[in-house]
Amino acid sequence: MCLHMLTKVQGPPPFNSNTAYSSRKACRGISSQSPREMSPPKVWMQPGWQEYLSARNAGLPYLPAVAELSTEVVRILGGNPGDMQLQGTNTYLVGSGQKRILIDTGQGCPIWLTTLVNYLAQHQLSISQVLLTHWHTDHTGGLPALLAQYPQLATAVYKAHPDQGQHSIRNGQTFTAEGTTLRALFTPGHSQDHMCFVLEESGAMFTGDNVLGHGSSVVVEDLGRYMKSLQVMTQSARNEEITVGYPGHGAVIDDLPAKLVVWSRHWELREKKVLSAFVGGKNKSRTSLTTREIVICLYGLEMEAMAGPFIAQVLSKLADEGKVGLAAAGQEKKWFML
Length: 338
Hints:
Helix content is 30%, strand content 19%. The chain is elongated. The strands form 3 sheets. Strands 1-2-3-4-5-6 form a 6-stranded mixed sheet, covered by helices on one side. It has 2 domains: 19-262, Metallo-beta-lactamase, Chain A; 269-337, Arc Repressor Mutant, subunit A (Orthogonal Bundle), CATH 1.10.10. The chain is built from 9 helices and 13 strands.
């Protein structure tokens, strides 16, 4: 099956299902994923992933419900800690004046709206615009309750690929509040409509779910576009001397350029590892392998369910780039190097 012997990579940390966060407990009655989010790759639904994610989350640092991160940025947690959401969805009030820009609206947990309303009232602040990084419901689910509380915001909601009544966001579009300029940076891949926002005055970037405060994004709708977006973010950080990242989940990223390098290399190494399964089969013999055979070759049978969705993403990207092909072989479809 495998064209050469490979060293098996280390598996996930020891499992401890008793330490799992539950967004359903924290935000009862609110689903953590919408029907669209439940489409492939469904990585978190594979055997072993719940235990792995729970064990990972058990070691996360504590984040307060409200944190004034700088003179321009206040983070308000969404109140939805979970296997996929880490400590919860980060929402941000941005600006230094009485009117602030809100980035993302959480999952729809009542505690988030209560916390937000109380903070605004205590500091005599108001929201001028709502910017949504992407469509996933743990970032947009709080919007209906927010608009019910502040109906005047119904005409001030912005999102790439907007829903009815919302405004679109163009790459490079700017949004201003007192002391603050946010510039949109189109970075699809995690989702097809994903936007980051550069805080021009502070050398910071709101990274959405493209780069998280802990670990990496599990859900990637289009790996090829995601990796290109990491390059776009890296170039922006380099050109504009951006150091700080404010992620959609997890703690503040103190060295965003370094983190971008780490995760770009992570995916590049994964690609090389997949291609290594075909060594000896290029051009002449065109030895072919199924996705399952590649996964077992690289990671072993016990990791098949966990690694399979990621390998399928990598193979799809390699096919788009003309590096591998897919052909029918009896009842199966097999990959081969081009």
